[in-house]
C-alpha cells in the first residue's frame, strides 16, 4: 500500500458508518469468539464507539477498524476491537472460514464481512501502518525508531486458545491485537517498555504499537459510560522468539516422559525474580501497611463472594477460604514491598528460548480484572502464587495425578527466586496462602466460564486451601544453595514510602 493511499485512509464518525446493517451478524458472531468476555450473558445493545476505514472506500478488500461497545443484560458494558474485511460476496475459498456474514443493505450491501486478521493482505496492511507512524482518525500508530521492522514478511494468525488475537510476521515479529479494550495504557505495553528501558532482556521489548484517542463522553464511551480521555492501547508488535517453546507445553512433555522439571522451575524462579527486581527499580514501589493489607484482603473476600454466586460448587468451602484473607488482614501487611508485577503469571506465559533461557510474556494481567486494579502495585508474591498454582495444574492434567512432581517444582521455583532476591517467598506464608487462594478462586471462575471440563483442577486446590492448615507444612523448607552457585542478591529495592 502506497503512502498516498495510506494518507487517503478515512476516519468516519460513528454516524457516518452505521453499525445498523452489521449489527445482526456481529450479535451472532461475537459470543462465539474465544476472546469474548460476555459469554452466557444476554447482549442488550451494540454501540459503535469508533469506526475507521483503513483503506480508501471502494478498495477490494476493504478494512474497517471498529471499536464496538457491548451492553449486557446484567449491566456490564465492554468495548471490543474488531478488524473487519469487506469484499464482494462470495469470499474466495481460503477466506471462507473467516466469514462473519453477508450485508444485505447499507453501504456494504452485497459484500461479505469477515475477520480481517485472517486475510494476509489486510494483516500486511496493519504492519505497514506500524512501520509508518502516524494518525488515522482517532488511531495513532507509533514505533521505536531504533528497532527495524522488515517490509514484507508473510503474516500468519496464531492459532490456539488466546485471550487476544496475534499475528506472526515471517517468524521475526508478533503483533498482539487486544480484543477487549479500556481507556488507559495496557500493562502489556507499559511494563515491557519499562523493562526494556531498565535493561531487562527477559521480556521481548515492544517495537511498535497503536492506540485510539477518543474524546471523553458522558456515556456510551469505551469504558461503558466512564468519562475519560486516556488513549486505549489496541495492539503491540514485538520480536518473535523463534524456536521457543512455552513452559506449559514443556512441563507437560516432561510429565508425560516421567521426567524431572526442577532445573527448569529453578531457572524460572530466577527469571521471575530478575523481572520483579527490574520492575521494582523502574517503577514506584510502596510498603504494604495495615490499610493496604486490609484493602487487599477485602478485595479477595469480595471476589470470593462474587465467585461463589457464579460457581456454586465453591459454597461449602467459602468460610475456610475466607480464613486465608482474614489472616492477611490481621497480618497488618508486615511492610513487604508492593510493586508493579506481571499479574497473571503461569507456565503458559513463559517461553524457553532457543538458547535455553526463559522469557516472560503477556503482562496484561488477569483479563477479567478492571484495568485500574491490574495497574496497582501489589506484593510480588502474587505472581509467585500464580506460578505455584501452574505446577499444580500441570501435575493434575497428567494421569495419574503427580503431586510429588508439583511439590518438587514449587520448591525449586521458590529456591530459584530466593537465589536472586535473597528472600524465599515461603517466608511470607500468610501472604502466599492468601494469594494462592485468591488465584484458585479466580481460576474456578475462569474455568467455569471458559473451560468447564477443567473446573476440577482449581476445585482440588480449593479443597486443600480451605483446610485451615499452614502452607509451610505443605511445602519443603528452603534448601541451601547448590555448591558453586552465586550468592543471593539483596532484595529488590526497599519500599520507598508506606501508603496512608
Ligand atoms: N514474543 C513472542 N515470541 C514467540 N511466541 C510468542 C511471543 N509472544 C507470544 N507468543 C506466543 O503467543 C501466545 C499468545 O501470547 P499471549 O501474549 O499470551 O496472548 P494472549 O493474551 O492472547 O493469551 C503465547 O502463548 C506464545 O505461544
Ligand atoms: O494466558 P491468558 O492471559 O489467556 O490467561 C488465562 O487463560 C489461562 C489458560 O489458558 C489461565 O491459566 C490457567 O490454566 C493454565 C493451563 O492452561 C495453568 O497453567 C494456569 O496456572 C491456570 O491459571 C489463566 O488463569 C487465565 O487468566
From TrEMBL:
Source species: Streptomyces toxytricini (Actinomyces toxytricini)
EC numbers for this chain: 2.7.1.175
Pathway involvement of the protein, from the record: Glycan biosynthesis; glycogen biosynthesis
Keyword line: ATP-binding, Carbohydrate metabolism, Glycogen biosynthesis, Glycogen metabolism, Kinase, Nucleotide-binding, Transferase
InterPro entries with a match to the protein in the record: Kinase-like_dom_sf (IPR011009), Mak_N_cap (IPR040999)
Residue spans of biased composition, Pro residues class: 147-156
Residue spans of biased composition, Basic residues class: 490-500
Catalytic activity as recorded in UniProt: D-maltose + ATP = alpha-maltose 1-phosphate + ADP + H(+)
Protein's UniProt name: Maltokinase
Family annotation (Gene3D superfamilies): 3.90.1200.10
Subunit structure and binding partners: Monomer.
Family: Belongs to the aminoglycoside phosphotransferase family.
Amino acid at each position: 500500500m502506497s503512502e498516498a493511499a495510506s494518507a487517503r485512509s478515512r476516519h468516519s464518525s460513528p454516524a457516518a458508518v452505521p453499525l445498523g446493517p452489521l449489527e445482526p451478524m456481529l450479535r451472532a458472531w461475537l459470543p462465539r469468539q474465544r476472546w469474548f468476555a460476555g459469554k452466557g450473558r444476554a447482549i442488550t445493545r451494540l454501540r459503535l464507539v469508533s469506526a475507521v476505514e483503513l483503506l480508501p472506500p471502494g478498495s477490494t478488500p476493504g478494512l474497517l477498524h471498529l471499536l464496538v461497545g457491548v451492553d449486557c443484560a446484567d449491566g456490564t458494558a465492554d468495548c471490543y476491537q474488531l478488524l473487519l474485511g469487506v469484499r464482494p460476496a462470495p469470499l474466495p475459498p481460503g477466506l471462507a472460514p473467516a466469514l462473519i456474514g453477508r450485508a444485505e443493505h447499507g453501504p456494504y450491501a452485497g459484500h461479505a464481512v469477515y475477520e480481517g486478521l485472517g486475510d494476509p493482505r489486510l494483516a500486511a496492511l496493519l504492519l505497514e501502518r506500524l512501520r509508518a507512524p502516524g494518525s488515522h482518525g482517532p488511531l495513532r500508530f507509533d514505533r521505536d525508531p531504533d528497532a527495524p521492522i522488515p517490509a514484507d514478511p508473510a503474516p500468519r494468525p496464531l492459532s490456539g486458545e488466546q485471550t487476544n488475537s496475534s499475528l506472526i510476521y515471517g517468524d521475526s515479529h508478533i503483533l498482539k491485537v487486544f480484543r477487549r479494550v479500556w481507556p488507559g495504557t495496557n500493562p502489556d505495553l507499559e511494563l515491557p517498555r519499562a523493562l526494556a528501558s531498565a535493561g531487562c532482556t527477559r521480556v521481548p521489548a515492544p517495537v511498535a504499537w497503536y492506540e485510539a484517542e477518543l474524546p471523553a463522553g458522558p456515556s456510551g464511551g469505551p469504558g461503558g459510560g466512564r468519562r475519560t480521555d486516556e488513549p486505549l492501547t489496541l495492539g503491540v508488535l514485538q520480536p518473535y522468539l523463534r524456536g521457543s517453546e512455552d513452559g506449559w507445553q514443556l512441563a507437560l512433555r516432561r510429565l508425560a516422559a516421567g521426567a524431572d522439571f526442577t532445573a527448569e522451575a529453578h531457572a524460572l524462579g530466577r527469571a521471575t525474580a530478575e523481572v520483579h527486581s527490574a520492575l521494582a527499580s523502574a517503577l514506584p514501589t510502596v510498603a504494604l501497611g495495615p490499610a493496604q493489607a486490609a484493602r487487599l484482603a477485602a478485595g479477595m473476600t469480595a471476589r470470593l463472594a462474587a465467585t461463589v454466586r457464579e460457581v456454586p460448587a465453591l459454597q461449602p468451602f467459602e468460610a475456610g477460604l475466607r480464613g486465608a484473607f482474614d489472616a492477611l488482614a490481621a497480618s497488618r501487611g508486615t511492610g513487604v514491598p508492593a510493586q508493579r508485577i506481571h499479574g497473571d503469571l503461569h507456565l503458559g506465559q513463559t517461553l524457553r528460548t532457543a538458547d535455553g533461557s526463559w522469557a516472560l510474556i503477556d503482562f496484561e494481567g488477569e483479563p477479567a480484572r478492571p484495568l485500574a486494579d491490574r495497574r496497582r502495585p501489589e506484593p510480588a508474591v502474587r505472581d509467585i502464587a500464580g506460578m505455584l498454582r501452574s505446577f499444580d495444574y500441570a501435575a493434575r492434567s497428567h494421569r495419574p495425578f503427580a503431586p510429588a512432581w508439583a511439590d518438587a517444582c514449587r520448591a525449586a521455583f521458590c529456591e530459584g527466586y530466593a537465589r536472586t532476591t535473597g528472600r524465599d517467598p515461603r517466608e511470607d506464608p500468610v501472604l502466599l496462602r492468601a494469594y494462592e487462594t485468591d488465584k484458585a478462586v479466580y481460576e474456578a471462575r475462569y474455568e467455569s466460564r471458559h473451560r468447564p471440563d477443567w473446573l476440577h483442577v482449581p476445585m482440588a486446590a480449593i479443597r486443600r486451601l480451605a483446610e485451615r492448615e499452614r502452607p509451610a507444612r505443605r511445602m519443603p523448607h528452603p534448601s541451601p544453595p547448590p555448591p558453586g552457585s552465586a550468592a543471593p542478591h539483596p532484595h529488590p529495592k526497599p519500599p520507598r514510602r508506606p501508603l496512608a
